[in-house]
Amino acid sequence: MVIRCAKEEDFQCIMEIYAYARQFMAEHNNPNQWGPTNWPPKGLIREDIGKGKSYVCISEGRIVGTFFFDYGKDVEPAYKMIEDGRWTKESPYGVIHRIAGDGTVKGIGKCCIDWAFEKCGHLRMDTHGDNYVMQNLLEKNGFVHCGTIYVTEDNYPRLAYEKIS
To answer: What is the dihedral of CA 20, 71, 57, 32, to 10 degrees?
Structure first.
């Protein structure tokens, strides 16, 4: 699988992947993470693409997955406040958000995590308490649950995870 920065011409495909992901989550007992707010919104995805922080996964010449990646010090404002625990390392980190696949290729989540971890060696991610698929993916890939964070999109707490080399 190849990962590259998303381009504006990838936008429609990315939005179709997110529509599939919302349906998948709802069918796997996670209807509230993205469903009620139709997350992620089109404007945010266009902004991510414009800033060079949206990525696509390509297999056999077609886009099969997408995600957001950024790296830096305090790059995710929601991670400044963590409850019921603490981050294990205070240093610049990478953050992955909005991992989604189109359902045709297995291993997209692992591929995205491996790619991002190779770039920075310190990742933080979060997920909804009902997203057991993502929780399992994170735990299988060496992440440690560090506590609870809150996002501005909704009132649901998020499980916060970290992976350090």
So the answer is: -10
pTM greater than 0.70: yes
Q: What are phi and psi of 62, to 5 degrees?
A: -135, 155
- Measure the CA angle with vertex 53, ends 131 and 149; round to 5°: 40
pLDDT tens-place string over residues 14-71 = 999 999 999 999 999 999 899 888 999 999 999 999 999 999 999 999 999 999 999 9
**Strand ranges across the sheet with 62-72:** 2-5, 54-59, 62-72, 93-101, 122-128, 157-164, 144-150
Over the Cα atoms of the chain, what is R_g?
15
- Pairing relationship of beta strands 122-128 and 93-101 according to DSSP bridges: parallel
**pLDDT tens-place string over residues 83-134:** 999 999 999 999 999 999 999 999 999 999 999 999 999 999 999 999 999 9
Helix (H, G, I), strand (E, B) or coil at 3: strand
